[in-house]
Prior knowledge:
Two copies of one chain form a homodimer.
Chain A lengths: L1 E7 L1 H4 L6 H12 L3 E8 L3 H11 L6 E5 L10 H8 L4 E3 L1 H13 L13 E3 L3 E3 L8 E6 L2 E6 L3 H19 L5 E7 L4 H9 L7 E8 L2 E8 L2 H14 L4 E3 L5 H12 L3 E5 L5 H6 L9 E7 L2 H6 L5 H7 L4 H15 L3 E7 L14 E7 L4 E7 L4 H21 L3
Parallel strand pairs in A: 1-2, 1-3, 3-8, 13-14, 13-15
Antiparallel strand pairs in A: 4-5, 6-7, 7-8, 9-11, 9-12, 10-11, 15-16, 16-17
Helix pairs in contact in A: 2-6, 3-4, 9-14
Amino acid sequence: MRVTILSIGDELLSGKTVNTNANYISLVLDGLGCEIVKQVTVADRKNDILDCLTDLFKMPIDLILCTGGLGPTSDDITLDVIFSFFNSKKLFDDKYWIKLMNKFSNIGIPISKSHKKQAVVPDNGSIIPNSIGTARGFQFEKNKIVFIAMPGVPSEMQAMMNDTIIPMVKSKIVKSKYVATIRTTGAAETILYDLINKNNDDDNINIGYYPSVYGVDIRLVGKDLNKLNNIKENIANTVSDYFYTFSDHNLEEIVVNKLIKHQFTIATAESCTGGLIGNRITEVPGSSNVYKGSIVAYSNSVKINNLGIDKNNLEKYGAVSREIAGEMARQVRKTFNSKIGVSTTGIAGPGGGTKEKPIGLVYVALSSKEDLVIKKYNFHSNRNKNKIRSSQAVLKIIQDYCENYE
Amino acid sequence: MRVTILSIGDELLSGKTVNTNANYISLVLDGLGCEIVKQVTVADRKNDILDCLTDLFKMPIDLILCTGGLGPTSDDITLDVIFSFFNSKKLFDDKYWIKLMNKFSNIGIPISKSHKKQAVVPDNGSIIPNSIGTARGFQFEKNKIVFIAMPGVPSEMQAMMNDTIIPMVKSKIVKSKYVATIRTTGAAETILYDLINKNNDDDNINIGYYPSVYGVDIRLVGKDLNKLNNIKENIANTVSDYFYTFSDHNLEEIVVNKLIKHQFTIATAESCTGGLIGNRITEVPGSSNVYKGSIVAYSNSVKINNLGIDKNNLEKYGAVSREIAGEMARQVRKTFNSKIGVSTTGIAGPGGGTKEKPIGLVYVALSSKEDLVIKKYNFHSNRNKNKIRSSQAVLKIIQDYCENYE
């Protein structure tokens, strides 16, 4: 199934909003085996939308998914424009309007008159229900291409995808290609490329490299599922030092679920990451079963008075050192009485770098009763990325620790 | 100046990567007064790119900015395709190749042969330097439309924008419209709309509402700068309870800079936010001057043993309560010896909700020697959003506290 995604909204073209909707829809449909042919974004302006629709309906595609501009305010013009494009008459849905009024009165908020347009329905298309919001979607068909308009609010669009569009696509699609992803962290794209390229030359499998601050995802696409799986396993072995998953799960999800499986409690002592590791761990539902908490020891006084770091060692080695990283991990484990303690200490930048200890220098450590693992990195990057890379390095050593028990 | 943005990359269409590049370019050029007419994303596939270029060169535009596909690996095909589109001959830049080889040998990494294509230059276009990476950009002109190709790595693209493209656009543009943004947090789009709509009816100023989990940005666009500024001030007064800035700065930047200005030190005690507030504060350069650190008290044992919360109160009121929020803020302020202590405690979800204390119930508090502010929210959302909204609420009370001293 060939799909294009049309995003409507001045806020996208002005850069006020990142287009996470196009990304979400692409990710979901690609996973179902659709081919996303194009993503287009146009302004909340009648002629721009009409021109774009005219172009899209000339393409050899099966489905157009459109988001944005169905809200209650006056800058939301999508409804009028698509009704005009499909020559639809506007009917007023009294039942839905009563439902809307009841909904608002139940939560004690007066309904705004501007919501009235959300009760409009077309005479020649259908309505797509919105299980969590007030703006419903619309479906039309023309030249055998199905067109669906959804609201731009991400949670409402996602609910509509889950309730209606994904089941519809699943019922129509014939699987024509297979995709696999090998996710790595801790090595640059070219290092992986040089490692992999020697051993995995197969014209039928397309290999792509997708670097981000979290690591490099290696993506395989091919028509032969057996071949794809063989190459996938080969590559994962070749890059085993950096490999963390074939799945869509983030490293924090993988790590928290491993900790829960082994019933290992954990505490964090964060310096340069400032709370990021705790934040990532607590993004995962169920983390409260294993995560005790953190001491974010951003200042030396907190390191000494609250984390119990030896003042002399702090002076001798400096806060950013192998020794202090290890002591932080051990101390937080003892203080919070957890099975594992992990720590970060480093120079995030932009200030604070020296020749011996440059910006991007980070030590991470893991302490348990039996083990002490300390790793040194130089991430050569900016504050935000150095923090993320540090958190990724910590999560990877927790994963490695858990896997020793598997 | 009318601009379109062309993003090339399978990773964008498959949803593996969010298209932050299109967003960044839009934001920067919109700020300079350009009109971004369209954003298009196509696959790393020769015909798709050629078809798209053909379409774009028919549009009434001045500039096409293209990103992606200039890397060293085999899936990076943009260079070949654009050279073919502009009928360019490939010349090899020996000087640049020697420079590249030296660069790699200086940092002790063997250069990959795959980098050779990054030394290719066109005979009928020009090169755009890359101050931080190896892939240079290209510039061509056809039918009076300037076409520029940049690498897809965000930091390299941004460096190229800053070094070359922004100065070029600035030198050519004639300012034809003005833009202002009023940023708010803590109120829904429709509440703001109903408040604002009564008093600010002006056909010459376009008002748009851009909700996100951080709040609602209200964006004004108009040709008359005086009128725009008047309406901007009017609206900021109308929504003063929720307003936090006219600028592009995030709330954490505003708050940290206020804390630095007043020399107020701060410590955080986080329960439901799990480290997010510390993470946001430490995203801001200079935060180490005012931020002492955090106790992330995710478990009750840490609340009692490390944060010093009264065990009887914890049993009497429950961890998610007005009383414990206040105690957490006061305790962390005292323990870390800071001017201000702030706290969060709440039910992030998806588990843990009850009828009396539903998912999304959050208390935030600020304690200083003179003051204790406690606020209750019900964010009715999912784990990730409840955390972000809580952090936003805390940052807002810190801002309000600082502004009492201004």
